[in-house]
Amino acid sequence: MIQQNLIKALLALVLFITLMVGLGVIFEDEMTFATTWVVERIGFLGLALILLVTDTLVTPFPPDILLIVIAKSPLSANWPLYVGILGVVSVIAGMTGFGIGRWLGHFNWSKRLFGRFKNEHQAFIQKYGFWAVVIGAITPLPYSVTCWTAGVLNIRWYVVLSASVLFRIPRIYLYYWLLTSAKSLFM
Fold first, then answer.
1. Which of 92, 138, 142, 173 makes a 20 to 30 Å CA pair with 10?
2. Which H, E and C letters describe 99-138, residue by residue?
3. Cβ atoms within 10 A of the Cβ of 55, count?
């Protein structure tokens, strides 16, 4: 199951990067104009708040778009700082989502939904919970869903935090690098 999810996530990543590079080449001037306009209106704090919401709650907005905003705006001059802050904000959001999952785990409907799975697979969850969070942290799969589920399934908080810090922050740097250098890889 883990191998299948990794393969699907890798394919989704390749598709996402290819799509972004293609759009970036075709609409480079428009993207620069639009991202600069967004940064001028909401600033980096606004971007960080968007990430906090999208990585805490389950939304259809992929947070990686914020990396494009940084890459194609004046923020790119200090990208290591901004990307690092977004990584930390993402981890905070994930832990907030974990807390929401823990809270939801107390409701009867949640116990019915996850209880049987949790009871039947408790040893598996405890043994591989760290790696499940890692998969959610590094792939395009919704990180918020991963953290909520970890909370509902009572994976220990320090397991979720360590997987998030060790893999989510480097993943954000890696995705930024892929988005900014992929054009040269394809051309």
1. 92
2. HHHHHHCCCHHHHHHHHHHHHHCHHHHHHHHHHHHHHHHH
3. 27
